[in-house]
Amino acid sequence: MDRYIATELIPPFLFGVGAFSSVLIAVDTLFELVRRVVESGLVVGVAVQVLLLKLPQ
Questions:
Q1: Domain locations in the chain as residue ranges
Q2: CB 54 within 8 A of CB 30
Q3: Tens digit of each residue's pLDDT (9 = 90 or more) over 1-48
Q4: What is the chain's alpha carbon radius of gyration, rounded to the nearest angstrom?
Q5: pTM recorded for the entire structure
Q6: 30-34 — which CB contacts under 8 Å span 24+ positions?
C-alpha cells in the first residue's frame, strides 16, 4: 500500500517542482531583459529574440 501511494505521488511532485523551477527561471530572465531595455536602451525586438532563445535552456 505504501509503495502504491509513493508511486502515485512522486511523479506529480517532480513535475510540479520542474514546472515551478522553469517558471522562476523564465521570470528571472524576463526581468533581466526588461532591466537591460530600460537601462541601456536595448531594442525591444532584440530583447524578445533573446528571451525566446533563452527559454529552452
A1: 22-57
A2: no
A3: 788 888 999 999 999 999 998 888 888 888 888 888 888 888 888 888
A4: 18
A5: 0.59
A6: none
